[in-house]
Amino acid sequence: MLKVGLTGGIGSGKSEVSARLAGRGALLIDADRIAREVVEPGTPGLAAVVAEFGEDVLLPSGALDREKVGRIVFGDRDRLAALNAIVHPLVGERMQELMDAAPADAVVVYDVPLLAENGLAGMYDEVVVVDAPEEAQLDRLVARRGMTEEDARARMANQASREERRAVATHIIDNSGTLDDLKAQVDSLWDSLTHRAAS
Ligand code: ADP
Predict the structure, then answer these.
(1) Cβ distance 27 to 107 under 8 Å?
(2) Ligand 1 center to residue 85 CA distance, Å?
(3) Domain covering 39-104 assigned CATH 3.40.50.300 in the classification
(4) Alpha-carbon span 122 to 86, nearest angstrom
(5) How confident is the model at residue 31, as a pLDDT?
């Protein structure tokens, strides 16, 4: 199994890359998504959150009111630690299940937006960084995602710089061109990853 960490700044094109890698056959592990799945209605995870935080954190539909939980734990270390103590082990278990089910030569791609920020490069065999000029990131966020320029700039300023991200990369995908250019790079990356996973 080859463990690949995938990262990139907001609007860099990381989701496009992960979708294409999954399309080629990578096993995609998205920790944010798993963190939502383990507290879906009917799960032991949600029951544990309700036992800790009370029925008030449920929406009328029975789903977790994520904004409300976010407000409770924001700036409160103890409450945040209590939430993480429930969610993190469940996420870890689910990730392990997915990996156990994968064949020995699988390419497992972890979608980790804050890989550089959190110093996680050492956890992976390969680190793929999707790199784009800041102006391209901004344009995509404003034109395609409907963000205001101010919001997009603020989010970008909160993340690692391009240089910091590139410094931890084993592969850099240059997304300064068209979507077709991007796809061609992902395809050649896929060939090299499958080659490594098989050897
Ligand atoms: P991220 O996941 O890194 O935040 P996305 O992959 O969602 O970024 O890309 C942001 C937006 O820009 C999406 O709508 C995506 O389709 C578009 N996009 C990404 N790369 C390109 C490109 N090379 N040319 C045009 N649009 C692009």
Answers:
(1) yes
(2) 34
(3) yes
(4) 25
(5) 84
Strand partners, 27: 108
Per-residue pLDDT of 93-133, as tens digits, reads: 999 999 999 999 999 999 998 899 989 999 999 999 999 99
CB of 1 closer than 8 Å to CB of 100: no
Question: What is the distance between the alpha carbons of residues 103 and 156, in angstroms, rounded to a whole number?
Answer: 37
Q: How confident is the model at residue 14 (pLDDT cuts 50, 70, 90)?
A: very high
pLDDT attached to residue 199: 85
Cβ–ligand 1 distance for 15 under 6 Å, the answer yes
> Which candidate, 132, 134, 152, 133, places its Cα nearest to that of 142?
152
Average pLDDT over residues 20-36: 94
Mutate to test the pocket of ligand 1, among 7, 14, 15 (most ligand atoms within 8 A of CB): 15
Domain 1-26+106-199 annotated CATH 3.40.50.10240: no
